[in-house]
Amino acid sequence: MVEGVLQVMESALEARDDKKKKGKPEIDLSDDQIKEIYRAMVLTRALEERGTALQRQGRIGFYIGSWGQEAAQIGSAYALRKDDWIFSAYREAGTALLRGIPVRHLVAQCLGNADDPARGRQMPCHYTFRKANFASVSSPIGTQIIQAAGTGMAMKYRKKDSVCISYFGDGATSSNDFHSGLNFAGVFKAPVIFLCTNNQWAISLPVSKQTASESIAAKAVAYGMPGVRVDGNDVLAVYKVTRDAVERARNGEGPTLIEALTCRMGPHSTADDPTRYGGDREAECWREKDPIERLRHFMEVRNGWTKEDDEKVWEDARGEVARAVSEEERVALPPLNSLFEDVYEKVPPHLVEQRDELLRIHPPKPAKDEGDDYKFP
Ligand SMILES: Cc1ncc(C[n+]2csc(CCOP(=O)(O)OP(=O)(O)O)c2C)c(N)n1
Question: By the 8 A CB rule, do 163 and 250 touch?
Answer without folding.
Answer: yes
